[in-house]
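Write out this protein's structure.
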Amino acid sequence: MNEAYAISYYQSPIGIIEIKSVDDKICSVLFVEKETKSISHHSPINNECINQLKDYFAGTRFVFNLQIIQNGTSFQKQVWNSLLNISYGTTISYGKLAQQLGNAKTVRAVGTTNGKNQLLIIVPCHRVIAGDGNLTGYAGELWRKEWLLKHEIEYAQIGEGKLF
């Protein structure tokens, strides 16, 4: 992957999100403490990502439609792709996700891979919870995971059947 990133920032209701793209694909959507303006520049794909994030936070977007890329092993890519199938406003346990991937014994590897997701919100790792229903692990901090899940539950009924 080319290291010439386009970097943009979006001030979300729960903090600053740094968006990186390369070759017209989003490769990173992460919460950061502050903007690094000296290296920030926009691109059409970053602008589209910001627009879709705005819609998500407004409760009018339930599925993202962006070209994305994440580097990882075939297992990691399989886990990240499976996260895209978790419906808006729902959750799944790490164990159930491992079972769906074909091996319940990979639950720890699924959890570790979930934590390495570089496309927060876009690839909805926040929808994966502990088997007992508790919120565990989130690179964007647990309070944000809780906020995102509550946000989605609030808007899930409104958005039923809307795929945009």
